[in-house]
Fold this sequence. Notes:
The chain is an alpha/beta fold and 206 residues long. It is 36% helix and 22% strand. It has a single domain, classed as Rossmann fold, CATH 3.40.50. Helix 5 (117-130) links the parallel strand 4 and strand 5 (131-142). The longest helix has 14 residues, at 117-130. It starts with a helix and ends in a 5-residue tail after the last strand. It binds S-adenosylmethionine. Residues 21, 51-53, 56, 70-72, 75, 92-93, 109-111, 114-115 line the site of S-adenosylmethionine.
Amino acid sequence: MSCMEKLYHLLENARMHNLTQSVLSFGRQRCMLETEAFLLSNATGRVLDVGGGTNRYGHIFKNNYFVLGDLNTAYVSYAKQKDARLNAVVFDATRMPFKKGFFDTIISVGLFHHMSDSDVCRSIDECLAILALNGKLVFIDAFLPHSRYDFIVWFLAKIDRGRYMRALPNFLKVIETKNRSIRFKQIENSYPWNLVGFVINNVEKD
Ligand SMILES: C[S@@+](CC[C@H](N)C(=O)[O-])C[C@H]1O[C@@H](n2cnc3c(N)ncnc32)[C@H](O)[C@@H]1O
């Protein structure tokens, strides 16, 4: 096992994951606030957090019916230990155990750079299937820097556990289909991460 693999393995532990998230968020209060504001301003009704980890964002959906889901059993158990009333489910984002049209909003932060192009497409299709008509898929992800000379952003992107960190135009090619309505915007104050927020409306298909 290489050093990086050992480190990644360590980060599968919920406490280690939380610790690194806290260290990486240190001094980045404005970015967190922008992230939360973006998620909250686009959310209504029943909310599902896909790839929600140890439940960093559940607290902003106190007034919603909220469900956390993640592939990592240790993260989900940890979140459940912290809040026994939390609805938390272990699932793969490409196969989710919910009824069609059940959620009004699906949020996700930092998930898609962990998934191959085909899994991203599968996961987005799956999200749209379990969203109500006119529901919203609201997600934020990290991207490679616009300039190849932006060494700090490159470095952070390259050491990230996500194996599929992409440039924004490449990601757009993956997710754009002809009848999909997609909006996106840079998350303010996210430097040295290049974070972009997306909203896909679940509009009626013809
Ligand atoms: C960078 S972490 C982000 C966690 C959380 N959203 C946050 O912002 O703190 C990415 C998360 O995606 C989860 N994940 C990766 N692949 C997944 C998949 N196929 N299905 C569900 N969750 C997945 C990981 O277990 C991890 O919790």
